[in-house]
């Protein structure tokens, strides 16, 4: 599967600006293709919901295209809004407005991870992974049963050859035979069969072990991929929590400023009232 451009805001993924359409599902063990599909869902969600950031869609898309980390996307948009003194109808302070837009971007990125996991494609991926995992477990059980059956069959064949060899090793029968060379050849032939059966049994057992390990490696790869994705999603959650904390700090700071301004205004009114009273 060809990927035209790496995703900058997703760990080991593809850029939000890539136009590659990836499948919603991938076979068990194809962890890179599966993660690319997941990242593509994140990209589509953010791209399709830029309208939530009106009128700053252009600044946001530009920040996404030029940022190497999700941490710098919101910062870049906030700086642009502050630098060009852009405000909205609810807040005339560009700094506060920039912080609000930055927080909204963080929320959109967090929601994109939810979409990638619980959205239609995400649920399809989970369903297929569970079905493929069940199939792999069944394959391993079938291989183990086949190995046990082959072992029993080889054991019966070996016992038959050993029994035949024991009969030929009967010294009186060899002495009574008119053709001892023929009996000696039969003994060698039985020994060759015994050796061949032994090696075939070992080869079959080794092949079954290799196949079982191959199937187990798929499950191991999926475990690693799942752990990586969990850590990835947690970091977006942490980013959103940081934004919430920052917003609370800014709200508290704004309240303190407003309180100080109100106190100053009351002091001014009190002073003016006191001055008027003294004049009277």
Would you mind describing this structure in some detail?
This protein has helices at residues 31-48, 57-66, 70-83, 94-118, 120-168, 171-176, 180-279, and strands at residues 6-7, 13-14. It has two domains: 6-128 and 237-244, no CATH class; 138-232. Helix 3 (70-83) packs antiparallel against helix 4 (94-118), helix 4 packs parallel to helix 5 and helix 5 runs antiparallel to helix 7. By secondary structure, it is mainly α. 18% of the residues are buried. The longest helix is centred in the last third of the chain and has 100 residues, at 180-279. The chain has a two-stranded antiparallel sheet.
Q: Topology of this protein?
A:
Layout lengths: L5 E2 L5 E2 L16 H18 L8 H10 L3 H14 L10 H25 L1 H49 L2 H6 L3 H100 L1
Helix pairs in contact: 1-4, 2-3, 3-4, 4-5, 4-7, 5-7
User: What proportion strand?
Assistant: under 5%
- Give the overall form: rod-shaped
Number of domains: 2
Task: State the helical fraction.
Answer: over 70%
**Helix count, DSSP H or I runs of 4 or more residues:** 7
How would you state the average pLDDT, rounded?
A: 72
- Written as H for each helix and E for each strand, in order along the chain, the element string is EEHHHHHHH
**Structural class, from secondary structure content?**
mainly alpha
Biggest sheet features: 2 strands, antiparallel
Count of distinct strands = 2
Ends distance: 89 Å
Rg, please? 37 Å
Write out the strand line-up for the largest beta sheet, numbering strands in chain order.
1-2
Low-confidence stretches: 1-24
